[in-house]
């Protein structure tokens, strides 16, 4: 099983909705976390409860080409 970690950033609820929709089509677990808070990435309310002004870390426990494109779209490049 392949694990991927990437930092992402969301600017509004519509972006979170798009991300959760893509995550929900995956048949493996995806977590999103910041500091010590870990949320299921398929939970729109969970993600919206996080501090969206910060870069969040996504950890995937599998791969899916469509979801990988979504991850790249929201990738937060480190300055």
From TrEMBL:
The name on file for this protein is: HPr family phosphocarrier protein
Identify the Pfam families for this entry.
Answer: PTS-HPr
Query: What SUPFAM superfamilies does the database record attribute to this sequence?
Result: HPr-like
Natural source organism: Wansuia hejianensis
Q: Where would I find the HPr domain in this sequence?
A: 17-74
Where would one find the signal peptide in this protein?
A: none
Q: Give the taxonomic lineage as stored in the record.
A: Bacteria, Bacillati, Bacillota, Clostridia, Lachnospirales
């Amino acid at each position: 099983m392949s694990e991927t970690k990437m930092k992402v950033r969301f600017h509004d609820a519509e972006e979170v909705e798009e991300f959760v929709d893509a995550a929900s089509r995956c048949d493996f677990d995806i977590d999103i976390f910041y500091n010590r808070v870990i949320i299921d990435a398929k939970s729109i309310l969970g993600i919206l409860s996080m501090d969206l002004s910060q870069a969040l870390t996504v950890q995937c426990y599998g791969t899916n080409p469509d979801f990988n494109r979504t991850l790249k779209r929201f990738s937060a490049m480190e300055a």
